[in-house]
Request: fold
Amino acid sequence: MSRCYRLFVVTTGITEEQLQKICSEQFGWEGQAFSWKSEATFDGEGTLYGGMSEEEAHKEIYEALKKMNSNAKIKTQWTYMEDLPYEEYGDDFD
Reply:
């Protein structure tokens, strides 16, 4: 069973190019890395397979980025896209 997520990664000490390579090429997330001030950020979407948890996926990405720079600061944010809350407005249908 797979689950679709939005992945947002914020780093310092990692370049935009390094972040793109890890997230997209190594782990298969579709998205774009960009830089702002001293941070490199990745915003993308992808799927977790085989019961992998968000924390397990974070650990894989975190460790791959730490290999590039052990002093880097890394934070990931996971949004489960298949069951988002929503509000509905308008007329009721019978």
Notes: The domain at 3-80 is CATH 3.30.70.260 (Alpha-Beta Plaits). Residues 54-68 form the longest helix (15 residues). Strands lie at 3-12, 30-36, 39-48, 73-80.
